[in-house]
Design brief:
Layout lengths: L4 E4 L5 H12 L3 E6 L2 H13 L4 E5 L5 H9 L10 E4 L15 H29 L2 E6 L12 H21 L4 E8 L6 H5 L4 H5 L10 H12 L9 E4 L4 E3 L2 E2 L4
Parallel strand pairs: 1-2, 1-4, 2-3, 4-5, 5-6, 6-7
Antiparallel strand pairs: 8-9
Helix pairs in contact: 1-8, 3-4, 4-5
The protein binds NADPH dihydro-nicotinamide-adenine-dinucleotide phosphate and 2-hydroxyethylsulfonic acid.
């Protein structure tokens, strides 16, 4: 395959879906992952109608064996991924540390931290072999600052921030670039997941302001991935114009 290959984890929704469409539209071959097969099938057919080559890999990033088996199952011509977008992630629950649900904590740690590690470990050796590649990790402003009730989610995103820096050092000599992308408020399914389907609560973070869209973040990811070979953006913090930090949002009405 002549085209460059991008692997997007968590492509069934939000930032990951927008990123898959952006790269596909720009001529990349795209590996799409997520747990919801129907969504992957739908995205695959939309992208194929646009003339893109797509490999759909449904697996649960929390499960180390599933990650390894899925990567092993990739056809030879898809195995040399040029850009890995470690996007799959979530916040679950929003409570103080003394009342938080440890099952929610497990899900966040197993997805945002361990899942990112399993997938990176499975895909990076082929980048090392080739002597080039680019890993783009979805951090968050929650990886830059702490807010009340954010405890474990913030901890996982601080860990992603640390891992982005660690990967950059470890992979430097192999010609692999690492970029940490840290968005503020983006309107996706994120809030519905965090508030476990409670629509009213999920709408509150975006009330009276214009949040970022998945497309806004996808454009930044694509920009970072397509700079000249000798240029790397290490870290990008992107917020809506109406936001200056986790606790500083200006709202109308
Ligand atoms: P969405 O909920 O819209 O998308 C999350 C994606 O992650 C889905 O495709 C979901 O797919 C996938 N995912 C979750 N768990 C797993 C799993 N165990 N295995 C495989 N895929 C999984 O949220 P966003 O698009 O907003 O979030 C994307 C990333 O951006 C996350 O890492 C998030 O922390 C980060 N982020 C989001 C911000 C926001 O305000 N929205 C701000 C800053 C960072 P499926 O359910 O089908 O498995
Ligand atoms: C998502 C953004 O501010 O809800 O990572 O933590 S925030």
């Amino acid at each position: 395959m002549n085209k460059k290959i991008v692997f997007v984890s968590g492509a069934t929704s939000g930032i990951g879906k927008a990123t898959s469409i952006k790269f596909g539209r720009e001529g990349f071959s795209v590996v799409i992952n997520g747990r919801r097969r129907d969504r992957l099938d739908e995205l695959k057919s939309v992208l194929e109608d646009m003339g893109c080559s797509i490999l759909s890999l449904p697996f649960d990033i929390m499960n180390r064996d599933e990650v390894q088996d899925a990567v092993k199952s990739m056809p030879e011509e898809w195995k040399h991924v040029d850009v890995l977008v470690n996007n799959a992630g979530l916040a679950v629950g929003m409570e103080h540390i003394d009342t938080g649900n440890p099952d929610d904590w497990d899900r966040m740690i197993d997805t945002n931290l361990k899942g990112l590690l399993w997938l990176t470990r499975a895909l990076v050796p082929s980048m090392v072999k080739k002597g080039r590649g680019h890993i783009i990790n979805l951090g968050s402003i929650a990886g830059k600052e702490i807010y009340e009730n954010g405890n474990v989610y913030c901890a996982t995103k601080h860990a992603v921030d640390a891992l982005s820096r660690a990967m950059r050092i470890d992979l430097l000599k192999h010609g692999i670039k690492v970029t940490n992308v840290a968005p503020g408020l983006v309107e996706t399914e994120f809030s519905m997941v965090r508030f476990k389907g409670d629509r009213e609560k999920a709408a509150l973070p975006y009330a009276g302001m214009k949040p970022l869209s998945g497309d806004d973040v996808a454009d930044i990811i694509y920009y970072c991935a397509t700079l000249p070979e000798h240029v790397n953006i290490n870290d990008v913090v992107i917020m809506p114009a109406a936001q200056a930090g986790a606790n500083h949002v200006v709202r109308k009405g």
